[in-house]
Amino acid sequence: MIRSELIQKIADENPHLYQRDVERIVNTIFEEIIEAMSRGDRVELRGFGAFSVKKRDARMGRNPRTGESVKVAEKHVPFFKTGKLLRDRLNGK
After folding, report:
1. pTM
2. Among candidate residues 9, 3, 53, the one with its CA nearest the CA of residue 33
3. Which tens digits make up the pLDDT trace of 27-83?
């Protein structure tokens, strides 16, 4: 499902809301998650999962084409851990 499909589904299930309002709500939720993660905070949605940021240290990598060693800089990457309810539903429990 992509963002526009999510917005359409929510708008269809809530006919009392305008589509532009649903779009603003969805965009605001995503923006708040992004802002929190950029500050290094953890975002938890009960039953769904938790978004966090993990730090990857600098390391020596290898160029697969030439075999030459390459420095890879330190970086931060997004991480998602599923919640128990989501895991159980995916596994048919």
Report:
1. 0.77
2. 53
3. 999 999 999 999 999 999 999 999 999 999 999 999 999 999 999 999 999 999 999
Asked if residues 74 and 57 have their Cβ atoms less than 8 Å apart, the reply is: yes
User: CB–CB of 38/29 below 8 Å?
Assistant: no
What was the pLDDT predicted at 93? Answer: 79
Q: Which two tokens stand for residue 58?
A: 């600098």
Asked if residues 36 and 43 have their Cβ atoms less than 8 Å apart, the reply is: yes
Tell me the C-alpha distance between 51 and 17, whole Å: 28
* The two three-digit tokens of residue 3, written as one number: 């963002």
Count CB neighbours of 79 within 10 A.
12
Query: Which residues are CB-contacts of 58 (< 8 A; sequence separation ≥ 6)?
Result: 71, 72, 73, 74
- Residue type (1 letter), 64: P
